[in-house]
Amino acid sequence: MDAPDLPPWLELTADPTAGTVVVSGADARSRADLFGLLAQALDLPEWFGRNWDALADCLLDRDEARPLALRVDDAEQLLADEPPAQFATLLQLCDDVWSHGRYPFRLVLRTTGERLPALYRRVATARA
User: Fold this and answer.
1) CB of 10 within 8 A of CB of 91?
2) Alpha carbon of 57 to those of 5, 47, 49, 53, 60: distances in Å?
3) pLDDT of 3 over the 60 cut
4) At 120, is the pLDDT very low, low, confident or very high (cuts 50, 70, 90)?
5) Taking Cα atoms as reference points, which of 36, 72, 70 lies closest to residue 54?
6) Under 8 Å between Cβ of 32 and 17
7) Which of 70, 102, 106, 109 has fewest C-beta within 10 Å?
8) Tally of CB atoms within 10 A around 67
């Protein structure tokens, strides 16, 4: 399936080997769950306020001089218990990190092959 108009920092895939830091979308159905998982997986600083602005600050100010490829498995469940605008906020935050961060950033949303078309639609809707 061809990726319809995805930004360069975003990959949708069924490939189980994509990404370097992995979190589970099934465990990140809410913002609170996502922030908790990212705090642990990315070893975010103590001052991380567990909100979108604090996450952006942490990702933009990373000290590690290396690219970051964050993979979300079961991505169709990511922020599923939140209003759709929250998923859109996450995608906008990732775009900002990619555009303004010191080091390369990529978000990999991974799901099964049969769920991939629905994930493409969800991303397209969130980016519209």
Assistant:
1) yes
2) 27, 11, 10, 6, 5
3) no
4) very high
5) 36
6) no
7) 102
8) 11
